[in-house]
Amino acid sequence: MPPLGEAALVAAVAYLAGSIPFGLVFTTLAGRGDIRRIGSGNIGATNVLRTGSKALAAATLLCDIGKGALAVLWARRYGGDMAALAAVAAVVGHMFPPWLRFNGGKGVATAAGVLLVYVWPVGLASGVAWLVAVLATRYVSVAAIVAALLAPVFAWLLTGAARPTETAAIIAILVILRHRSNVARLMRGEESRLVLGRKS
């Protein structure tokens, strides 16, 4: 396959994989209603948790991570550059799915999945940063922004290579831009904190 056709195939498959709205699918099948009309309206695991079901939130989280991981794992057969392309495309797919009029989620879990496969030390370090930040602040949005900002830093420190650093930086920019409304709510003191121990 010509290089351009190969890149188009990888981008398309990764984008479509990333665009599967697991949060919406799971909550709809479980009879919890349209997740887009609940809480923040986001299709990700944090908003699914607001339906009161930890099981649905966990399933959404795992599947959103998994779809990003599988997209990059599949793309690896075409080489490192194609894996990087798939990483970005899967995140874009989650954020802008065609099935939801290009209005999807924030991309944090999918970004975690792609980084864990594309360059696992960066994914692991970013995950630890997210966990520390969310435990310290109880703001999932703050944790997401912290992890996103640190991901390219970790990529450079842990790999010293340009491609992983650039890929992590592109994903970080996308994630941060999708959190603009969260930043605005944080500045107004209106952002919701994560409540642990809620019943499922």
Give an overview of the whole structure:
- Helix 1 (3-18) runs antiparallel to helix 4 (54-75) and helix 1 packs parallel to helix 5 (80-95).
- The chain has 10 helices and no strands.
- The relative contact order is 0.12.
- It has one domain.
- The N and C termini lie far apart (49 Å).
- The protein is globular, with a radius of gyration of 16 Å.
- With 200 residues, it is mostly helical.
Helix and strand arrangement:
Blueprint: H1 3-18, H2 22-29, H3 45-49, H4 54-75, H5 80-95, H6 108-118, H7 120-137, H8 140-159, H9 162-178, H10 180-188
> Can you summarize the main beta sheet?
none
Mean pLDDT: 93
**Percent range of helical residues:** over 70%
Number of strands: 0
Our estimate of the beta-strand percent is under 5%
What is the approximate shape?
globular
Low-confidence stretches: none
Task: Report a brief summary of the structure.
The protein has 200 residues and is mainly alpha-helical. The chain is built from ten helices and no strands.
